[in-house]
Design a protein that fits this description.
7 strands; alpha/beta; Rossmann fold; globular; seven-stranded mixed β-sheet
């Protein structure tokens, strides 16, 4: 994302449209989301805070299947509305709440959550280290943090960096990512990594949703910008991202 509010609003609006068919807003299968819950939820009644919670699928599934109580925070009114509807659909609206707010400004009580997560949105802290620092105060003693982060399969090509609008130091390879986590004061005790199929099932529905939106909105003021945004993402993934970019959820302890 860029640093102007108008550009951030544009990117958010485009993602709301592109991810209309995605329930999980990361390259992660339902089975792996459930696996994460079995790994890190200490028991029924555990308190979970999810920053940049998207459509709330993680909290809703864990509340339904593992008995957690949770709070999700997200900037998008569209995603928050979807999350609240999902909570009603899964029968857990009394156990989870979703707050429409910039996650960077959300104030949680110190040590008030057993699990604190931010999956795929480390931009909220201007990078991995800043996001871990943002998450840590809410974590209870002995609790677990989850951070979803991009990593490179080896040294990224210049084409990949340019296609994704990244600088060489923005992300590391897998081992380097774990080293960055350690430098921030946390130990990686588990990891659940995206497979190529997880990536495909995350990206593919976005292409469908983007084209469906364009067909349904001819002449819309956003039409050309939306078409260009869709094309850039499509080409970046197929030419570079699928081969060079990984993603994973890292399970952390202090």
């Amino acid at each position: 994302m860029t640093d102007t509010s108008s550009d951030v609003a544009d990117v958010l609006r485009f993602h709301e449209r592109l991810e209309a068919r995605n329930r999980i807003l990361n390259p992660l299968s339902e089975a792996k989301l459930d696996l994460l819950g079995r790994i890190c939820v200490p028991g029924e009644g555990a308190r979970v805070l999810d920053l940049a919670s998207g459509k709330g699928e993680m909290l809703c599934r864990w509340a339904r299947d593992l008995g957690v109580r949770g709070t999700g925070v997200d900037l998008s009114p569209v995603f928050v509305a979807d999350a609240r509807a999902r909570a009603e659909e899964t029968g857990v609206a009394a156990r989870v709440e979703f707050v429409e707010q910039d996650a960077t400004s959300y104030e949680a009580g110190a040590g008030s959550f057993d699990v604190v997560s931010c999956l795929g949105a480390t931009w909220i802290g201007s990078g991995l280290a800043g996001t871990l620092e943002l998450m840590a105060p809410a974590l209870a003693e002995g609790g677990t943090m989850l951070v979803g982060e991009v990593f490179w399969h080896g040294e990224p090509s210049q084409g990949a960096l340019e296609a994704h609008g990244m600088a060489r130091g923005d992300y590391a390879d897998l081992a380097g990512t774990v080293e960055r986590i350690a430098a921030a004061g946390f130990e990686t005790v588990e990891a659940v990594l995206a497979s190529p199929d997880d990536w495909d099932r995350y990206m593919g529905p976005q292409w469908w949703a983007g084209h469906a939106w364009l067909r349904a909105n001819p002449g819309h003021p956003d039409e050309e910008a939306m078409r260009a945004f869709l094309r850039r993402g499509h080409d970046a993934y197929l030419r570079f991202g699928r081969a060079e970019m990984g993603w994973g959820v890292f399970v952390l302890r202090r």
